């Protein structure tokens, strides 16, 4: 079984072992995980402790497994090590584009569930979701599995509410109760991210997946925290994309709720991040959202003009799908501008 090769010259081995162990220990402590919590039948407390103190190395398979126990990918670890060593600048685009922690199947499942909320679903769908929730919560339950269960539970609740065929009064009461239940569902995640000093892929991903279930006032408080606490990753491509998706997603939450001041703050934060990265795709996304904001704020002509500029740029960049996506959003925003309670579009 091959050893993790974190060093290139034999005389540097001891120094690198200490640095790797120290970085791992800091990441573990950042996430408020004890040695007991991450140890298992595959790796003992003693072995982890020796690694953290630089007294022992470990095999690649063991180390990758151990990183998974603290919800950090190998790519993130290598990136952070290079960043701490001064090998990667904060504003330079990193070569680390792949991230093994990406769970494509779960992300696609969440997208499927979002689409299911557009129509009334049979009871069998709700029962199937309960089965999925139970599977995630089957011991031993990790933090990742717990948060995955929360995501499924959120959509299960929305689908259940959509099945209601009650009167308007009952529906109104159900909505009020649902909002309270939704906030309760997201609370474990909210409590967790408030306590984490350095956000990585794991924290940003679940904030993005669960943000619809979090009250806007809480999201407004978390927005600058998310940007600040993930700043060290801004040149790590997988996380860079997540940061943008989250920022634009929160903007859409605020603008749909007509919380214009908060929506404007989100746009300002996006602009600040973009100034260091020169990303044309997201710069055009920002242009479109500025038009969206202007339209909702009262200047429809100027807002539509700005949105159409962004759509034209997507055509120039030969991005027909993005252009069509923006066109659909613009039509939706204009249609529901004066009646926001009747329809909304979330990024």
Distance between the termini: 45 Å
Chain-averaged pLDDT: 84
Largest sheet: none
How many β-strands, per DSSP?
A: 0
Structural Rg? 23 Å
Count of DSSP-assigned helices: 16
Strand content: under 5%
- Rough outline: globular
Written account of the structure:
- By secondary structure, this protein is mostly helical.
- The chain is globular, with a radius of gyration of 23 Å.
- The model is unreliable at about 1-10, about 90-95 and about 170-175 (pLDDT under 50).
- The protein has helices at about 15-30, 35-40, 45-50, 60-70, 75-85, 105-115, 125-135, 145-160, 170-195, 200-210, 215-230, 235-255, 260-275, 280-295, 300-315, 320-335.
- The N and C termini lie far apart (about 45 Å).
- Helix 8 packs antiparallel against helix 9, helix 12 (about 235-255) runs antiparallel to helix 13 and helix 14 runs parallel beside helix 16 (about 320-335).
- The longest helix is centred in the middle third of the chain and has 28 residues, at about 170-195.
Helix and strand arrangement:
Elements: H1 13-30, H2 35-38, H3 45-52, H4 60-69, H5 74-84, H6 104-116, H7 123-136, H8 143-162, H9 168-195, H10 201-210, H11 216-229, H12 237-256, H13 260-274, H14 280-297, H15 300-316, H16 320-335
Helix pairs in contact: 6-8, 7-8, 8-9, 8-10, 9-10, 10-12, 11-12, 12-13, 12-14, 13-14, 14-15, 14-16, 15-16
């Amino acid at each position: 079984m091959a050893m993790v090769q974190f060093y290139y010259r034999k005389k540097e081995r001891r120094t690198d072992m200490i640095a790797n162990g120290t970085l791992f220990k800091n990441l573990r402590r950042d996430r408020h995980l004890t040695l007991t919590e991450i140890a298992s039948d595959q790796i003992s407390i003693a072995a982890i402790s020796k690694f953290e103190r630089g007294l022992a190395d470990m095999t690649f398979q063991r180390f990758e497994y151990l990183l998974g126990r603290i919800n950090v990918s190998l790519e993130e670890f290598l990136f952070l090590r290079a960043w701490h060593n001064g090998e990667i600048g904060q504003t330079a685009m990193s070569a680390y584009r792949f991230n093994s922690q990406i769970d494509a199947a779960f992300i696609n499942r969440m997208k499927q569930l979002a689409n299911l909320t557009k129509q009334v679903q049979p009871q069998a769908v709700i029962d199937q979701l309960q089965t999925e929730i139970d599977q995630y919560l089957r011991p031993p339950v990790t933090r990742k599995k717990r948060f995955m269960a929360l995501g499924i539970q959120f959509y299960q609740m929305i689908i259940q509410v959509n099945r209601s065929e009650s009167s308007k009064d009952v529906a109104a009461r159900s909505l009020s109760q649902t909002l309270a239940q939704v906030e309760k569902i997201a609370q474990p995640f909210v409590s967790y991210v408030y306590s984490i000093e350095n956000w990585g892929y794991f924290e940003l991903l679940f904030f993005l997946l669960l943000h619809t279930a979090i009250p806007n006032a809480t999201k407004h408080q978390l927005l600058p925290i998310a940007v600040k606490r993930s700043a060290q990753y801004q040149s790590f491509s997988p996380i860079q994309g997540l940061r943008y998706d989250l920022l634009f997603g929160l903007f859409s939450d605020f603008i749909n709720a007509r919380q214009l001041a908060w929506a404007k703050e989100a746009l300002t934060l996006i602009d600040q991040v973009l100034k260091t990265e020169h990303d044309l795709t997201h710069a055009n996304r920002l242009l479109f959202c500025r038009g969206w904001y202007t339209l909702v704020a009262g200047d429809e002509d100027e807002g539509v003009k700005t949105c159409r500029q962004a759509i034209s740029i997507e055509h120039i960049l030969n991005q027909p799908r993005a252009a069509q996506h923006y066109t659909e959003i613009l039509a939706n925003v204009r249609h529901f501008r004066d009646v926001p309670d009747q329809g909304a579009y979330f990024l």
